[in-house]
């Protein structure tokens, strides 16, 4: 419906401002519909009404700011944030070089961000939008998941602030949810041995490597029989031409979870036990990886593997859990409390500690004390003392 034409005596006044002749004052209608007395001073009333309309009814008041906004802003800040997500993602990937699994999560989140912010200018994003985003896509998720999604928004918005697309980062004002303490029960040596006895040879090899090295599924699945020299992103063995005082070579592990820290590069001496595990893993399957198997059927290869015989970390975890449940070892516990393959890492640390061997350096923890550092190809490797766990 077209607005009613203003009376002739009010046409010189800003929209929604009129003069009350009976009381001799100027009154103004707010966006709520409420009428407000703004005094008898004509010039002041007009100034207030114009400024209010400019801020609260910008569609009625052409201005330089509005024209700039309609043009996309000075630096593009008034364009939809979705327009910048791909560019910001490229910067974040270049800067942080995430693992493939992390990158997959980022890409999925980026699609949601582009969908949600498709019509919201970058400069207009506030905390209310952060809350609405979480409520739309992750309302029923755990506290840990919601906190990760907020952190992802915080990451994207930090680049937007850096490029003058936003004045501040509203995700930093979002209060993170309190996370529950870890429920997962520790893996006992008794249960480890029971699962090991029932496991397929390749799973038994993976379990033995995890116990001796204290490393997790990703690193264990990447250990190669032989590498020429240690380097970033590679786990594998460098062998001596002749054994030296019971040491046959060095197993180099680059732990991906802490890959940017100096302690993430660990050099573990290969003694009798590690050599036994590696030797016993050899079979008639031509594979460069110590933990390997021929797939039962042709399936799409995981992004985490580089060879058909390499075991994907997820498959390794699922196989361990399936064998645990098949044996009924933890049937008294809820599913989310049953120990997983990852708990071998904690069991190994406990067993090394009982032997008086500091497990921190071996585990790629940055506060390791009984370790020394040497440089190979400009990379600092933490070499740990020789140690073995006799679990058999």
Topology:
Elements: E1 17-20, E2 25-29, E3 35-37, H1 42-56, H2 64-70, H3 85-96, H4 100-116, H5 127-138, H6 143-162, H7 189-198, H8 201-213, H9 217-222, E4 223-224, E5 235-244, E6 247-254, E7 265-270, H10 272-281, H11 313-326, H12 343-354, E8 372-376, E9 379-383
Parallel strand pairs: 4-5, 7-9
Antiparallel strand pairs: 1-2, 2-3, 5-6, 6-7, 8-9
Question: Would you write up a description of this structure?
Answer:
The chain is of the alpha+beta class and 392 residues long. A hairpin with a 4-residue loop joins strand 1 and strand 2. The chain has a 6-stranded mixed beta sheet with strand order 4-5-6-7-9-8. The longest helix has 20 residues, at 143-162. The protein is built from 12 helices and 9 strands. Helix content is 38%, strand content 12%. The radius of gyration is 32 Å and the shape is elongated. Helix 3 (85-96) packs antiparallel against helix 4 (100-116) and helix 8 packs antiparallel against helix 10. It has 3 domains: 8-61, Classic Zinc Finger (Double Stranded RNA Binding Domain, 2-Layer Sandwich); 81-173, Orthogonal Bundle (DNA polymerase, domain 1), CATH 1.10.150.130; 189-295 and 305-383, hpI Integrase, Chain A (Orthogonal Bundle).
């Amino acid at each position: 419906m077209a607005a009613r034409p203003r009376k002739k005596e009010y046409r010189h006044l800003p929209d929604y401002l009129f003069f009350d002749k009976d009381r001799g004052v100027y009154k103004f209608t707010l966006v709520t519909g409420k009428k407000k007395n703004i005094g008898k001073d004509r010039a002041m009333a007009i100034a207030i009404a114009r400024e209010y309309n400019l801020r609260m009814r910008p569609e009625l008041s052409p201005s330089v700011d509005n024209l700039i906004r309609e043009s996309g802003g000075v630096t593009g800040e008034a364009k939809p944030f979705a327009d910048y997500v791909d560019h910001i993602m490229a910067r974040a990937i270049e800067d942080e070089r995430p693992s493939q699994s992390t990158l997959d999560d980022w890409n999925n989140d980026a699609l949601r961000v582009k969908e949600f912010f498709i019509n919201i200018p970058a400069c207009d994003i506030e905390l209310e939008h952060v809350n609405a985003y979480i409520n739309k896509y992750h309302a029923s998720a755990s506290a840990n998941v919601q906190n990760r999604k907020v952190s992802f928004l915080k990451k994207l918005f930090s680049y937007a602030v850096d490029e003058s697309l936003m004045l501040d980062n509203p995700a930093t004002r979002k209060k993170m949810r309190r996370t529950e303490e870890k429920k997962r029960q520790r893996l006992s040596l008794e249960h480890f041995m029971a699962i090991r006895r029932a496991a397929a040879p390749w799973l038994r090899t993976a379990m033995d490597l995890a116990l001796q090295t204290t490393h997790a599924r990703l690193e264990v699945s990447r250990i190669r029989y032989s590498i020429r020299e240690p380097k970033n992103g590679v786990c594998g063995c460098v062998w001596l031409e002749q054994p030296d005082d019971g040491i046959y070579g060095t197993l180099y592990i680059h732990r991906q979870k802490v890959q940017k820290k100096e302690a993430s590069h660990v050099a573990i001496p290969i003694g009798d036990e590690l050599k036994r595990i590696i030797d016993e893993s050899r079979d008639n399957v031509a594979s460069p990886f110590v933990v390997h198997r021929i797939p039962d059927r042709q399936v799409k290869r995981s992004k985490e593997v580089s060879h058909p015989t390499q075991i994907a970390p997820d498959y390794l975890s699922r196989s361990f859990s399936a064998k645990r449940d098949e044996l009924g070892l933890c049937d008294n516990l809820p599913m989310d409390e049953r120990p997983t393959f990852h708990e071998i890492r904690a069991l190994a640390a406990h067993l090394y500690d009982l032997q008086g061997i500091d497990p921190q350096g071996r585990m790629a923890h940055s506060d390791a004390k009984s370790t020394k550092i040497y440089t190979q190809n400009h990379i600092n490797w933490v070499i740990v003392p020789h140690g073995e766990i006799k679990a058999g």
